[in-house]
């Protein structure tokens, strides 16, 4: 009898392991193979974005912070895959304004949806949500910490434009202190032998924890405060970032640094032929509008790649494989 009870318990544990949801909360634990796999999956969706692979599923889109691209591209991804969407883009219009906790909000929404996409202003909120949620959580940005779905579209954009992720010179420019997209990119690129150039004023320098991360993972980097034609001549990717006003406690400091680096068309005369300019957007003032028509500008296409990368993520957290997508007959 004891053996039978033990066997039942082991079976329950194994079943719960098999059923364990696949959250997408951080980029830090993604293997090189998994990154390549998600890129391959994104490529499939770029070939055919309209499929019924998520028919019957409900996606919850919970945005506790403002967003244009991330929210709309996740929602477009869900729509193009045949899912339906619930959610909010203004938490003030929900019971959060009455004091409902994040735990209770997540448990309620998990009653209704198959996947929860969440952006939150608190660092670590997505990890916490994944620990309490019975359905997969996709982190759509948590404070100044991580933006892993942006990272997947950045990797896809780099791969598409350079033909590889290996051995690239990547220049990260602007707000490297608060910019969660650059922090995620450093972690993801650890597999691909990059050389990073961190260009930031001292107030917005790359935090020591990420420099330590580079050292511990053998990632080469140099730091600069100058941003000019000479410094960027060797770049394969220039990744511009916005100075994140909403993260400053001292607005005078923001005023001092907000326009410190502006990429202008006349700085691009000597760059490598295949160099591409990325920006997670929104831009404020850091890329002059005269750059938009330069063939090196790629930030608008980059945002479009977000649709395909996020379609790939929905499938992955729901256990729909590349093989399933290739066999899909719903196109
Ligand atoms: N890149 C990005 O996160 O943009 P949004 O804030 O508009 O979603």
Structural class: alpha/beta
Order of helices and strands: HHEHEHEHEHEHEHEEHEHH
Uncertain runs: 14-19
Strand content: 5-15%
- State the helicity in percent bands: 25-40%
Overall strand count: 9
Small-molecule binders: phosphoric acid mono(formamide)ester
| Overall pLDDT metric | 93
Q: Which descriptor suits the 3D outline?
A: globular
Give an overview in words.
The chain has 331 residues and is an alpha/beta fold. The chain contains 11 helices and 9 strands. Strands 7-6-5-8-9 form a 5-stranded parallel beta sheet, with helices on one face. The protein has a 4-stranded parallel beta sheet with strand order 2-1-3-4, sandwiched between helices. Helix 3 crosses helix 10. Phosphoric acid mono(formamide)ester binds next to helix 3.
In short:
This protein has 331 residues and is α/β, with parallel strands linked by helices. The protein has helices at residues 2-18, 32-47, 69-80, 102-112, 125-132, 148-162, 180-188, 208-216, 251-257, 299-317, 322-327; strands at residues 58-63, 84-88, 115-120, 137-142, 169-173, 195-199, 220-224, 237-240, 276-278.
Chart the SSEs and their pairings.
Layout: H1 2-18, H2 32-47, E1 58-63, H3 69-80, E2 84-88, H4 102-112, E3 115-120, H5 125-132, E4 137-142, H6 148-162, E5 169-173, H7 180-188, E6 195-199, H8 208-216, E7 220-224, E8 237-240, H9 251-257, E9 276-278, H10 299-317, H11 322-327
Parallel strand pairs: 1-2, 1-3, 3-4, 5-6, 5-8, 6-7, 8-9
The structure holds phosphoric acid mono(formamide)ester.
Phosphoric acid mono(formamide)ester binds at residues 67-70, 141, 150, 280-282.
